Amino acid sequence: MKRMTRVALITSGGDCQGLNAAIRGVGKALFEKLENIEIFGMYDGYRGLIENDYKFMTSKDFSGILTEGGTILGTSRQHYIPGKDIVDDEGNSLIPAMKDTYNRLNLDCLVIMGGNGTQKSAKLLYDAGMNVVTLPKTIDNDIYGTDTTFGFQSAVDIATNVIDYIHSTASSHSRIFVVELMGRDAGWLTLNAGIASGADVILIPEIPYDLNKVAEVIEARKKKGRSFSIVACAEGAVSKDDVVLDEEARRRLKEASNYSAVSYKIAAELEAITGQETRVTVPGHYQRGGPPCPYDRVLATQFGTAAAELIVNREYGRMVAIQGGEICSIPLEEAASRTKFLPVDHPMIQVARDIGICMGD
Ligand code: F6P
Fold it and tell me: Would residue 157 show up in a list of annotated catalytic residues for this protein?
């Protein structure tokens, strides 16, 4: 009789497209590769591990979920103290409770699917003696050590579609439209959707903007007979004036601001400078919803099967990744070490500039 392997699956942090495809990939591959396998699905991310709240998963649970958005296991965010702990509202460490569940279920490994924050907290669990394998998921594409994450391409598709639709109404009304896209402090999503949809201006956190420069570009378009302009703006976009402020000063500025999001501030300022009617569209969480695109279905499946292979080989403390088109894995320590911002000399930024897109600088 072959040794029993016990694995728990966790989806943690903000959801994205492809989580169910990844769950399916891990589950199906484990059932294929191992004779004796028990799989547990923790409910609502780390909460399930903390509160011993899970379901025992059979092979049936992994069928029919490939195209479903969200996560069948649910997800949540925890309070993470950088590099130190995961704590409750009173500041008590939750790691011992997680370890209790891990030991009670006699687990061999946790498979944790998450974004940047999740990779960091997964490392804490690994350091606390739990075996961990992680998968990189996020629409932000900001996880270090992997060229891309599942969820990203689906969000690019949606964001592109939003801007495609905005184009016609912007043109009919000769308006400026500021479309605000997610991505936290990284510009990957906005840059890719902006190029794919033919935006005229792309504002990303990594390149602080000067609205006078943006207005000049819009005026020049008008002179050439282009009566409307589309600004794809990342939610983390920051002006040249604000970028020099420290974190506290920026927080106070945000608190005192009349605008709920950066796009509204940019729109008001652009309207004041250009005198042209300006509107805002914020697709928000729509970018994270619905079925994964085919690319993400494939990538999540590849990541899922690679995670299963790591478990078979008992290679723990690693994040599955894709580098140069090859599926691989890297030490979790490396993945959790930093955020992958968009380098300002990235060739894709040059592509945007080469076709006359204004990057706000
Ligand atoms: O990290 C994914 C993401 O969708 C970001 O793009 C966005 O800033 C954030 O999560 C939104 O978080 P929440 O779902 O908690 O509103």
Answer: no
Bridge partners, 86 (sequence order) = 80
* pLDDT digits 0-9 by tens, 4-35: 999 999 999 999 999 999 999 999 999 999 99
Residue range 155-288 in CATH 3.40.50.460: yes
Contacts of residue 279, defined as CB under 8 A and 6 or more positions apart, other chains included, come to 170, 175, 176, 177, 178, 267
Amino acid at 82: P
CB of residue 185 inside a 6 A radius of ligand 1? no
Q: Residue 73: helix, strand or coil by DSSP?
A: coil
Q: Which residue has the tokens 């061999």?
A: 108
Angle among Cα 209, 180, 322 to the nearest 5 degrees reads: 90
Collapsing DSSP to helix, strand or coil, 310 comes out as: helix
Helix (H, G, I), strand (E, B) or coil at 320: strand
Residue showing tokens 């495609």 = 164
Per-residue model confidence (pLDDT) at position 88: 95
Residues spanned by CATH 3.40.50.450 within the chain? 5-150+292-335
Q: What CATH number should be reported for the domain whose range is 5-150+292-335?
A: 3.40.50.450
Tell me which of 75, 79, 154, 288 to substitute to probe ligand 1's pocket, judged by most ligand atoms within 8 Å of the beta carbon: 288
Q: Where in the chain is the domain with CATH 3.40.50.460?
A: 155-288
Cα 323 to its chain centre, rounded Å, is 18
